[in-house]
Amino acid sequence: MAKSQATFMKKQLEKNRQKKKEDKEQRKLERQQNGGGSDLESMMAYVNEFGEIVSTPPEKKV
């Protein structure tokens, strides 16, 4: 006798869930290894005298 279609679909759905879980874990590991980029200095933005957003701090005027 042939297996039912419902059993086949259950197995396929489980494979898809497992693959998604593995992909998510892989992306998590890549983020942990690359790290970096989240320090405060890289997130800072400054506004210059013209009201434009720039990444360099303003010069001190004496």
From TrEMBL:
Region annotation (Disordered) ranges: 1-42
Basic and acidic residues composition-biased segments: 11-31
Protein known as: Cold-shock protein
Organism: Mucilaginibacter dorajii
